[in-house]
Specification:
The complex is a heterodimer. Chain A is mainly β. Helices cover 12% and strands 62% of the residues of chain A. In chain A, strands 1-2-3-4-5-6-7-8 form an eight-stranded antiparallel β-barrel. In chain A, strand 5 (124-142) and strand 6 (145-165) form a beta hairpin. The relative contact order of chain A is 0.22. Chain B has one domain: Double Stranded RNA Binding Domain. The chains are: A mainly beta, B alpha/beta. Chain A binds chain B through residues 4-5, 7-8, 11-12, 15-16, 18-19, 21, 28, 30, 52-54, 56, 58, 74, 76, 78, 80, 83, 85, 88-97, 99, 101, 103, 139, 141-146, 206-207, and chain B through 2, 5-6, 8-10, 12-14, 16-17, 19-22, 24-25, 27-28, 32-42, 145-146, 149, 153, 182-184, 198, 202-203.
């Protein structure tokens, strides 16, 4: 598992270097993302944190203060529950090891505000908000027998973080932050896939 | 050129993400792959029965065809059913000694059609186990509860319990309990006792007292 995470991180970083270009109005941001299921997602489906994910965004800088763009990502959640007998209907019992496997792919419109962009040059805190679609794959396994379900839902996100430029003119740098995702999910009696995230990655200008 | 680089970059990220997905099937032992399903007639008092008999062979139901077999695994499943019933207080008798309950063991395999539904299994049950086998020629089998929730792929072992005590009065052979085992490696004599025990353990109402 650790190797997989390292490979993912390495891939993200090297991909960023290979796509370098000069400055200034468009930027691409790619992050490794660790996600914690919260609320009903945590209590009903998966309570393990997920180390398997990434987030990214492509932003257009309207001015030094505000940028808008597209946010995207991927997260894989997984939980294995020990064997248990489940009642089904009035008279039926099913004994199984239960596995929940959930993948989410959010694609959202995003706005980012960097309030101290004119006064701070070495560390730039920002706040962000995003809203859009959440493509969900939810597969429940009873033993080796799966019950897959794909759906599309809404997702809204609030976040904050800091960007640390590596070189002059801010052509690229590091991004560290966190987000909270509100993700309604009304299938099979579930209510939401809300999650709390921390991310670390790089950004670079592409135009 | 820039567009190509960005597209390549995002494609690489998507591929990495897919590679990072955790596959439940790779995090599963044979034991964990198995599921045990039981159902029963809730109007039945299982402690009103005292004796039982188990079929001397296993019905092999394969791609819509059926026949009787007795491999070492089949024999182990039959013995395991006897052991579990006796452990719950029932007395094993010959099928010619008017047992209160008759139990059958069935092995269901699908190799060509991919799917055998419970419906098709149940529809032909009378041909797998001719009522004559239990001494009631001409009677029909009756299942008071739903038997069509799951589909059977690849293979399964089922155990059915038939009410013989009340057959004469009701003029039918009522199946009052069923158990189904599905998953990897179940056609194996060495694990038959644990598989049948799992079915009975989750059916605590099967007791003589």
């Amino acid at each position: 598992m650790k190797n997989k995470i390292l490979i993912c991180l390495f891939g993200l970083l090297t991909a960023g270097f290979s796509a370098k270009s000069q400055s200034s109005r468009m930027s691409l941001n790619l992050n490794y993302n660790y996600s914690f299921p919260v609320s009903h997602f945590n209590s009903d489906l998966v309570n393990n944190g997920s180390p398997r994910g990434f987030t990214g965004n492509m932003m257009y800088h309207i001015n030094p203060l505000i940028s808008v763009g597209l946010d995207f990502g991927y997260q894989d959640y997984y939980q294995k529950y020990p064997r248990q007998v489940y009642n089904y209907g009035q008279t039926q019992q099913i004994s199984a090891v239960l596995y929940n496997s959930v993948q989410t792919i959010p694609v959202m419109a995003r706005v980012e505000v960097t309030p101290f962009s004119k006064t701070l040059t070495s560390v730039r805190p920002y706040v962000s908000a995003a809203a859009g679609a959440n493509f969900i794959s939810n597969t429940q396994y009873l033993g080796e027998f799966s019950n897959p379900s794909n759906s599309t839902g809404f997702m809204a996100q609030g976040g904050l973080g800091v960007k640390v430029p590596f070189v002059r003119y801010n052509s690229w740098g590091a991004d560290i932050g966190g987000t909270y995702n509100i993700a309604p999910y009304n299938k099979f009696g579930y209510k939401n896939l809300d999650n709390l995230n921390v991310h670390a990655g790089i950004y670079f200008n592409i135009e | 050129m820039r567009t190509i680089r960005i597209t390549a970059l995002l494609s690489a990220v998507a591929l990495m993400a897919y590679g990072c997905q955790k596959d439940p099937l790779k995090d599963m032992t044979n034991e964990e792959s198995r599921i045990y399903i039981t159902d029963h007639d809730s109007t039945i008092q299982f402690n009103s029965f005292h004796t039982f008999s188990v079929s001397d062979s296993v019905a092999l139901i394969q791609n819509g065809q059926s026949g009787k077999q007795l491999t070492s695994a089949d024999a182990a499943y039959i013995q395991a059913v006897k052991d579990q019933m006796q452990a719950r207080g029932y007395v094993l008798v010959s099928k010619n000694d008017n047992p209160d309950l008759g139990l059958t063991v069935n092995r269901i395999i699908s190799t060509t059609t991919g799917v055998i539904s419970y419906d098709s299994y149940w529809d032909y049950y009378g041909s797998y186990w001719d009522p004559y086998y239990w001494g009631y020629p001409g009677y029909g089998y009756y299942l008071p509860y739903s038997y069509a929730v799951y589909q059977i792929r690849e293979g399964a072992v089922s155990v059915d319990m038939v009410d013989l005590k009340d057959a004469s009065e009701s003029q039918k052979l009522s199946v009052i309990w069923t158990g189904l085992i599905r998953g990897s490696g179940i056609y194996n004599a060495s694990i038959a006792p644990s598989q049948v025990k799992a079915l009975f353990d989750q059916s605590s109402y099967i007791q003589t007292n």
